[in-house]
Amino acid sequence: MTDTLTVSVLGTGIMGAAMARNLAGAGHTVRAWNRNRAKAEPLAAVGAHVAGTPAEAVEGADVVLTVLYDGATVLDVMRQAAPALRPGTAWAQSTTAGLESAAELAAFAEEHGLVFYDAPVLGTRKPAEDGQLLVLAAGPVQGRDAVTPVFDAVGNRTVWTGDDGAAGTATRLKLVANSWVLAATTAAGETLALAQALGVDPQNFFDAIAGGPLDMGYLHVKSGLILDDRLSPPQFAVATAVKDARLIVEAGERNGVRLDLAAASARRLARAEEQGHGEKDMAAAYFASFDETPPA
């Protein structure tokens, strides 16, 4: 198979739009669709065909790439695309979906003769824009030549977790990784809130842990967004983090593990969303520490 492919990108939000741009930049033919067409229209400037329906978007595609909100949305959109799907087409499913959804999507792929790749990605807006995502993938070895150029265009590394996409091994790894990301984000926000409440300059805290095992780049990144009021546009939105936190808690419950910290993070993120911060960066969970907007 040639390395130049026709790729259908279903979902052009923060991640999907960036991935579509990088695919077009790598020389692939991109056919893009989004429920809100206005979010897909800017891709026409990089040569993408902006489709009016999912079925139109997947016409002639070598690879279908789904980057949507959740598993239920993916299944709904793929059902709309079904009349134009060709048997043998590779499907790279990059939406963060729960384990139950991963199995349902794999079953849909089998029903329609698609070659299914469980392929969530790790990264936020900036890595997505730079083509520096980490792709976590599982799927058959035979057929990977169809998806490898896609993964190479959107990421700097692909970690293969197995050869059966239906087993959801890549999704499982994504949930584990996201549990750490959400825990670290929650901890950063709470630490800054406590510092404010106690009259501690956050910089004194950063200086105290600098260079030691407690220091981490992610703390500085998320803290900087809060302290410098750079929560919009989001790198990863609170509303999406709420969904991911819920999936993590559900995965733990179904496998006999109590995830108290993840459950608390889910409630905290949901509270921030209820306060009106859903479209801000997930670091805005910081505001959930306060009953009212904290003073500047």
How does this structure look, described?
The strands form two sheets. Strands 3-2-1-4-5-6 form a six-stranded parallel beta sheet, sandwiched between helices. Strands 7-8-9 form a three-stranded mixed beta sheet. The chain is built from twelve helices and nine strands. With 296 residues, it is an alpha/beta fold. The mean pLDDT is 96.
Give the SSE map.
Layout: E1 6-10, H1 14-25, E2 29-33, H2 37-40, E3 49-50, H3 54-58, E4 63-66, H4 71-81, E5 90-93, H5 99-111, E6 115-118, E7 121-122, H6 125-129, E8 133-138, H7 144-154, E9 155-162, H8 169-198, H9 202-209, H10 217-227, H11 238-254, H12 260-277
Parallel strand pairs: 1-2, 1-4, 2-3, 4-5, 5-6, 8-9
Antiparallel strand pairs: 7-8
* Oligomer state of the chains in this structure: single chain
**Biggest sheet, in brief?**
6 strands, parallel
List segments where confidence is low: pLDDT < 50 over at least 5 consecutive residues. Answer: none
Beta content comes to 5-15%
Q: Tally the helices: what do you get?
A: 12
Sum this structure up briefly.
Helix content is 49%, strand content 14%. The protein has 296 residues and is α/β, with parallel strands linked by helices.
Name the descriptors:
296 residues, 12 helices, three-stranded mixed β-sheet, 9 strands, alpha/beta
